[in-house]
Amino acid sequence: MVLLCVLVGPVGLLGEVHADTVGLYNPAAGNFYLRNSNSAGAADLTFRYGPAPSTWRPVVGDWDGEAVVTIGLYNQSPGNFCLRNTNSAGAADLTFRYGPAASAWLPVAGDWNGDTTVTIGLYNQATGTFYLRNSDSAGSADLTFRFGPAASNWLPIAGDWNGDGTATIGLYNPATGTFYLRNSNTAGAAELAFRYGPASSTWLPVVGDWDRDGDDTVGLYSPTAGTFYLRNTNAAGAADTVFRYGPAPSTWKPIAGDWVHYYDITDYWPVAEGDVWGYEGSSSTHGVFGQVRTVSGTTSIGGREYANVVSDVSWGETWMDFLQTAADGVRHAGSFEAGASPELVTFDPPMLMPNDLPLGRTVSESTTEWDDGVLQGPRIFTVTLTGIETVNVPAGTFPDCLRVELSIATPGVPGADQITLWLAKGVGPVRQYEVNGSFTEEIELTGAIIGGVHYPRVYVHVETNYWESGQYQLRISAEAAPGDVSSIAISGPSYLATATVNKPSGAGSDDPTHLYDDGLHWDGAAGDGHWIVVLDLNATPQVGDTITYDITFGDASSDSKNASIRAVYAQTATLVSPADGATVGSLTPTFQWNDAPSSAITQYQVLIDDPGHNRVFYSPMIAAGTGFYTVPPGSLLGGSTYLWLVNGTDWCGNEVLTNWDTFHTP
């Protein structure tokens, strides 16, 4: 009979040591009962794994290096290990044969080489020999040595007795109630030998870091009484923790480990200069919209540097959030909203989404909000990790996303701002949902570039342009990491075959320099990772028409992606003044127009070219409902002729363009 226990207490992703807790395995039913505290009570995790009834022996460890201990079984009959990477029912993730079949050898497990992954071993009581392996796979032992007497019934254990990050072996002699611990996986005398518990008993040994001090210590389990006796030092003495858990008497086997997975929020929300996220969404106040977030520069708040995460939204607003990836998590120090009435909001201390967060835990902290330096009062910021989910968004499928519930409340005031975030590892927020009273908003990731990595690998997009003359165009684009794509072939509705490539005279962003002759086969070999073509159509595109991109990558792999036409408009803005052919009164004229009838067109831009259609001046984006723009000094020359139009766009880039009108300067 043997107990395998947690061998090296797992360390959190920031170095925080977590306490090991006990569990039980019932071989008659094949059930595991895991508890998240060393106290009496019901199991926190109960599941069946392996056959029932069986003589298989439990073994536990962090098999995949994810800082959580999971279960396994050893079948002595064929000599097979069956290890699982989650504490749940299901098939084994690792199955392999190690050691002789039909033997009485006993399993052990530990991080024998300090690489943070636990691997298996065997102990032969007949010869007093350990056979330890540094990978969870079939093969020969990496370490073989004798420790303890031959032909004994001593039970093998393993743990990090001295806190150096490496597990070493030990033995428990039930006849005398004595532990023999060694600090190296070699033959030799025990460094620690002490009596703990009664002699000549059926009590079983268990090992764990019960007090979170970084080293493992012993414990005992009495099957007769169903009681654990845990000790915080490897020395003789009374138990530090005593509690009943499980039935009495029983044949259940004790185990121990850190069963809880702790998540580091900073792994799921990178914030580095140049990172970009694109979103599409809808809100109760602005309808459907687009948003781009970019990390650009830093701002010093309270003596700390915070990254500026600048958000541009399609209805014309811009703001920035101040974020910092710190040792203890992601900190949000406040925000600044630009515009006609700029506003600076800060939080002291900054709101923290903490690292080392286990599933189901809620963390709350108090902060104080200041608006433009004026005290607004206390706020309670609450964070809860509520789930691990696979999320499908336009940017792709992201498995194992953290679902994080955030709440910002004012003490004594009903209601709160509730935000749900889905965070993908290495990417950041891929979905966000917010509710505050009657206000709701939801966004989903359409594309991102994080640390130079593109999500998706190729981002594809289709926009429609409509000219007042009745001409429709398609603007087809793709973006990837430079050098990643070998070629792209475009196909779709029949009108593509008769379309004409619109080649502007200047070398602007629309210049199809990376295209083959017909505009539908794109050469990526010499490209910068960005392709775009504008096609003049002889037909009217329809909402839902799909463009297919057949992509060949530089590594010879391939993919196919689709982009659909999201909107088609047939009415533009109406130019009001100056009238076509008029002479304006100054070199800073004011242009006026009436918006297009569709409320989906959320912003406008005044474009001014010379008669050869070379760009002279393009205004910034102007919110719908404004209807005028004054050209700043120095933009125009006197005694000259210019062309102007107004271009309206919706949230995803679809455009309606007026015809060009002419004006003259004095």
Describe this protein with a few key phrases.
disordered N terminus, single chain, 1 helix, 666 residues, Neuraminidase, twelve-stranded antiparallel β-barrel, YmcC-like fold, Immunoglobulin-like, mainly beta, 4 domains
CATH topology of the largest domain: Neuraminidase
Q: Hey, roughly how much beta strand do the residues contain? A: over 45%
Give the overall shape, derived from the CA principal axes. Answer: elongated
Tell me the CATH architecture of the largest domain.
6 Propeller
In total, the number of strands is 53
Helix content: under 10%
Distance separating the two termini? 102 Å
Quickly count the helices: 1
- Parts with pLDDT < 50 across at least 5 consecutive residues: 1-16, 505-518
Integer count of domains: 4
Give the arrangement of secondary structure elements.
Elements: E1 21-26, E2 31-34, E3 45-48, E4 57-61, E5 70-75, E6 80-83, E7 94-97, E8 106-110, E9 119-124, E10 129-132, E11 143-146, E12 155-159, E13 168-173, E14 178-181, E15 192-195, E16 204-208, E17 217-222, E18 227-230, E19 241-244, E20 253-257, E21 262-263, H1 265-268, E22 276-283, E23 287-301, E24 304-313, E25 318-326, E26 329-337, E27 343-354, E28 357-358, E29 362-371, E30 374-393, E31 396-409, E32 417-424, E33 428-436, E34 439-450, E35 453-455, E36 458-467, E37 472-480, E38 485-491, E39 500-501, E40 521-523, E41 530-536, E42 546-553, E43 558-564, E44 574-577, E45 582-583, E46 590-594, E47 603-609, E48 615-618, E49 622-623, E50 628-630, E51 641-649, E52 655-657, E53 661-664
